[in-house]
Amino acid sequence: MRTPLERFYPLIPAGGVGSRLWPLSRAVEPKFLLDLTGTGSSLLRATYDRLVDLATDGVMVITGEAHANAVTQQLRELRGSDLVLEPSPRDSAAAIGLASAILYQRDPEAIIGSFAADHVIDPVEDFQAVVREAIAAAATGKVVTIGIEPTEPSTAFGYIKASKSLGAKDAPHALAVEEFVEKPDAQTASAYLATGDYTWNAGMFVAPAQLMLKHIEANEPELYAGIMQIAGAWDTPERDATMNRVWDTLPKTAIDYAVAEPAAAAGDVAMVPGSFSWDDVGDFDAVARLNIEKTGDDLFVLGDKNNVITEDSTGIIVNNTHRKISVIGISDVVIVDTADALLVTVRDDAQSVKNTVAKLKEQGLNNLL
Amino acid sequence: MRTPLERFYPLIPAGGVGSRLWPLSRAVEPKFLLDLTGTGSSLLRATYDRLVDLATDGVMVITGEAHANAVTQQLRELRGSDLVLEPSPRDSAAAIGLASAILYQRDPEAIIGSFAADHVIDPVEDFQAVVREAIAAAATGKVVTIGIEPTEPSTAFGYIKASKSLGAKDAPHALAVEEFVEKPDAQTASAYLATGDYTWNAGMFVAPAQLMLKHIEANEPELYAGIMQIAGAWDTPERDATMNRVWDTLPKTAIDYAVAEPAAAAGDVAMVPGSFSWDDVGDFDAVARLNIEKTGDDLFVLGDKNNVITEDSTGIIVNNTHRKISVIGISDVVIVDTADALLVTVRDDAQSVKNTVAKLKEQGLNNLL
């Protein structure tokens, strides 16, 4: 008889460009491939490293075909059979659903865990303890989300409303989930915080593969049929042919609609609060905050530190060009210097980078995106 | 009998890096070779164009050997015999003294006029009218400076104290000069302004070549002997050999000490007030001011305008790289983007660019200077 942890298979859907991190993050080198904390590890590599210790038999990565080389360079130990390359983007239900189906084919008692490739989490030990609880709770037949304890009434995230203790063995902090709610307005977010019942939905969840597939079958039967067909061929010589034939026919929908929300309505969802610090590094203000907190310096240089000269300045400088950069007299500056594009702004305006990206799109300058 | 204007020979000492305009201005491409106003003309070319209409027989240019190609590219009509290439920097008395000596050899009645290569002057017609007055006054046997009417109690310039009218024919505004004074402190500068007797010394002056040489002979006999020797060989096949043999032996001193100050003490100096607008474009704040005044826009792009996207920003952006530049939410910004160096600052800190240059010098990074 195996423990729940002995049946745990993490998977990492690695997608999304992170366009508010332009010009550092690009379609050809999106956020998850970048080192945003100066550690030498990309966000993907760090996500992999957080999970591999918990894994029964490796970590599965799902990403776009365009990133095959970059991902295998960063994760040299990744087996080919654990890398799902999407011929085209079909949204999260297809990606996570297919991975769940493959793992279910390999091990019908598999407990899968899905974790975004582009978040920063610290400390790793606390994260792993929470995931272990989530695995234990999932083993009772639940889709278990990890809820991030809110530090502010953010309108950038969906929320999870939890209530009473689940009472699951080895999962003392697990709570039953009443519902998922979409990104609220500021007033609603403040009200959520006041109750103490709401946590941020960071899209991390752990569940029996069988339970995932049950909900997908019920809610998206066409998607279910397709992913089961691909999964059946996955560990055979028919893998590529089947993938190429079936993938592009899969319905596009989010895992929230295919699994999380209907499961919550059916009383199948639990939540373990994430007591670690978590950041989805949505913009350069977040990149600055994370690194300035970590280093204690009020000016952080990512990239070529030796070629930066500063005077009376704070903020973040990304030097990816090895050019000499001199910055004088700007507080909370954000400078991102890349081979073909330069961003200069301040931390308070970091969100507005999306306007520049929108303009470049309008102008059809796809080579810069 | 020739008029004074028919004996007028302008000369342009083109030197100085303009290090507060780093990283645009470099030793290999100093300020005078740059177009700082987006007109397509460098400061040198504009200086030449202002003077050539007044010239009897061309304009003489004195510059470092390193700039021979750039200068002849910008001034294709310049005769080889009117381009004095300095094998090494020997300061302004040697440069202007030698040009005066050559012109004196060619025309003993020459009236020379010396004008820096890196100032911005507008309108040209007003400038030329003032120079014509200065020529008329010089013909009475004076070293005639052009005094810039101060717009503020600047501590960045020397001042000229003038008194009564010179009463010279065709020079109604010419005044006798009492003395030159060095750059004052702020209090002294304010006191100067209050009297109305002081103008800025912008280093522009007009004088009979013979009078220039008389003062040089009296104050710097060794310099005088050297420049006369080179000048004697200038329009002969011995030019280069003599220049190369003698130039590096010339004493290094400023024209202020060799001519202007002793001439003033001897009562030989007059001043014509410059009613035109004048700027020595000492830093990027000045570059921004000049261009913003001219265009009426509060954000000016020098260089590749098409590749700049701005939002809620004012100031100046120099785009010399054709990279895409996005600037968001910074007022009075100064961004100078070149192939190997990037400056980001604000107009109020434009003077501090010299600190960066000093650091680069300390580090021996001469390729960036």
Automatic annotation (TrEMBL), chains A, B:
Residues 307-360 form the MannoseP isomerase/GMP-like beta-helix domain. Keywords: Nucleotidyltransferase, Transferase. It comes from Rothia endophytica. This is Mannose-1-phosphate guanylyltransferase. SUPFAM superfamilies: Guanosine diphospho-D-mannose pyrophosphorylase/mannose-6-phosphate isomerase linker domain, Nucleotide-diphospho-sugar transferases. The lineage of its organism: Bacteria, Bacillati, Actinomycetota, Actinomycetes, Micrococcales. One of its GO terms (molecular function) is nucleotidyltransferase activity. Gene3D superfamilies: Spore Coat Polysaccharide Biosynthesis Protein SpsA, Chain A. The keyword Plastid does not apply. Coiled coil: none annotated. Residues 10-290 form the Nucleotidyl transferase domain. It comes from the Bacteria. CDD domains: GDP-M1P_Guanylyltransferase.
